[in-house]
Specification:
By secondary structure, the protein is α/β, with parallel strands linked by helices. It has ten helices and seven strands. Helix 1 packs parallel to helix 3 and helix 7 runs parallel beside helix 9. The protein binds S-adenosylmethionine.
């Protein structure tokens, strides 16, 4: 795993200083996954590529240094915790609606000495009430379709900041379906970047959505409404 990680980070032109912490994180992930459902990906090579390097790619595509970042629906910490390990200047909030996953993340952060990471148990649409426009960047991977996800995430982004959903390369239709939601919520798609995870032939997509206007106060709505009537 170490070799794969080091090779991948070199290919991405990222520093290696976080590698020992990532190796420890992988150990804790595999161990905890035996007693609770954190991830279906358990082979070391797959954890290195599909969790760690897939997350790390974001650092090579956008400037995260010194930014306030929220990772919505972070699960076992992807992409957010990997970003923070590799770029220590990030002020990170990890948000998930499942408390067991947040407890795991607290354990990992304590073990790795990352005391300043905020691990929050909550739903994004409720968290927005106290943290509206509070983040420079909001990331999210594998949480919801883009029209729904935009309503969960864009209210949290400050004006001029970025919502960076990680999606599949087959997300053209999803992106078209989200155009009305983005317009209403104050976001504009600036670009999409398709990338290959280093050391694999897996292709994923990062969508760059800039927050150009304030999100109207009535959003986000309760999740039942978002789901029943997506924007
Ligand atoms: N982002 C991680 C990854 O890519 O491995 C986890 C993805 S997992 C499929 C989706 C996660 O989103 C779950 O941990 C779930 O609890 C969380 N989630 C779903 N809806 C949410 C919401 N409205 N607010 C916060 N978390 C949510």
């Amino acid at each position: 795993m170490e070799e794969l990680l080091r090779g991948g980070l070199t290919a991405l032109d990222l520093p290696q200083a976080g590698v020992p912490a990532l190796l420890r994180y992988a150990e804790l992930l595999v161990e905890k996954n035996k007693v609770m459902n954190l991830t279906a990906i358990t082979e070391p090579a797959d954890i290195a590529a599909l969790h760690f390097l897939d997350s790390a790619v974001l650092l090579s595509l956008a400037d995260f240094s010194g930014r306030t970042v929220a990772d919505v629906g972070t699960g076992a910490g992807f992409p957010g915790l990997v970003l923070r390990i590799l770029e220590p200047s990030i002020h990170l909030t990890l948000l998930d609606s499942l408390n067991k996953r947040i407890d795991f993340l607290k354990e990992v952060c304590a073990d790795l000495g990352l005391e300043d990471v905020d691990c929050v148990h909550g739903r994004a649409e409720e968290f927005a009430a106290g943290h509206r426009e509070g983040f420079d960047i909001v990331t999210s991977r594998a949480v919801a379709s883009l029209p729904l996800l935009a309503e969960l995430c864009l209210p949290l982004v400050r004006q001029g900041g970025w919502f960076l959903p990680m999606k599949s390369v087959d997300s053209d239709q999803e992106l078209r379906a989200a155009s009305h939601a983005l317009e209403v919520l104050g976001g504009v798609v600036e670009k999409t970047v398709d990338y290959v995870i280093p050391g694999t032939d897996v292709r994923h997509r990062l969508i760059f959505i800039k927050k150009v206007r304030e999100t109207p106060q009535k959003y986000p709505r309760a999740f039942a409404k978002i789901k029943k009537n997506p924007l």
